[in-house]
Amino acid sequence: MGQRRKSGLAGRTGRERRAAANAAVAAFAVLATMSAGCGIVGVGSPTDRPLDTLSVSSPRFRDEAPLPADYSCSGQEGNPPLRWSGVPQKQTKSIALVVDAYGPQGAAEVHWVLFNIDPRTTELAQDSVPRGAFQGQTSAGKVGYFPPCRRDDTYRFSVYALDSMLDLKEGAELRPTMERIASSTIARGRLSAAHIE
User: Fold this and answer.
1) What is the pLDDT of residue 108?
2) Smallest Cα–Cα separation from 170: which of 133, 130, 195?
3) Three-state SS string across 140-182, please?
4) N or C: more exposed end of the chain, with fewer CB within 10 A?
5) 76 vs 93: CA distance, rounded Å
6) What is the C-alpha separation between 192 and 138, in angstroms, rounded?
7) Residue 138 exposed, middle or buried by CB count within 10 Å (0-12, 13-18, 19+)
8) Helix, strand, coil share of the chain (percent; to 5)
9) Going by CATH, does the domain composed of 14-196 fall within 3.90.280.10?
10) In which band, very low, low, confident or very high, does the pLDDT at 189 lie, cut at 50, 70 and 90?
């Protein structure tokens, strides 16, 4: 998975820190533009009707409960396991997953982008990427799960049913990937972690 680091900006030059900060701001702008109400992608859906809702859960934590530290930058477990249901089988061509965070001061980070997951998939194992799926860049410019460090942030694990496969490759840039996910979404759901335990 992505490299584990104590801080997304640690050990970087001033120029690299500014570039990473600009990427985070751009990602947040995309998320804010695409979000509807509770922060799940909705605007830009190819349908005129309200989006279907997916149920998203994890065997390791409940919605609005703390994220276990094992899945943070102080742990060694990679991404937490996730499960989802309610995917519209006939219309869905792929699944995407976005892990993002926002803090008390409004700062935002995208920690993982996973797309072109087989539409028949209903769960994601701990520290894994489904066969055939691709990972896009995070706010830090890394590819893979970038473990969160900010203890007081809210972490959102959002799953999207898409009406197409994304014509993007491994390591795709964050903004175009998020825009493509938004424009292809037909159903969505989210599991939130209130902070890191």
Assistant:
1) 87
2) 133
3) CCCECCCCCCCCCCEEEEEEEEECCCCCCCCCCCHHHHHHHHH
4) C
5) 33
6) 18
7) buried
8) 20, 30, 50
9) yes
10) very high
Q: Please give the Cα distance from 186 to 80 (Å, whole number).
A: 25
Q: What is the pLDDT of residues 19-60, one digit of tens each?
A: 444 444 444 444 544 443 334 333 344 445 578 999 999 999
**Among 163, 175, 177, 139, CA closest to 30:** 175
Centre a 10 Å sphere on the Cβ of residue 68 and count the other Cβ atoms it contains. 16
Over residues 83-91, the mean pLDDT reads 96
Residue 3 confidence class, pLDDT cut points 50, 70, 90: very low
Domain ranges within the chain, ordered by starting residue: 14-196
Phi first, then psi: what are they for 183, rounded to 5°?
-75, -15
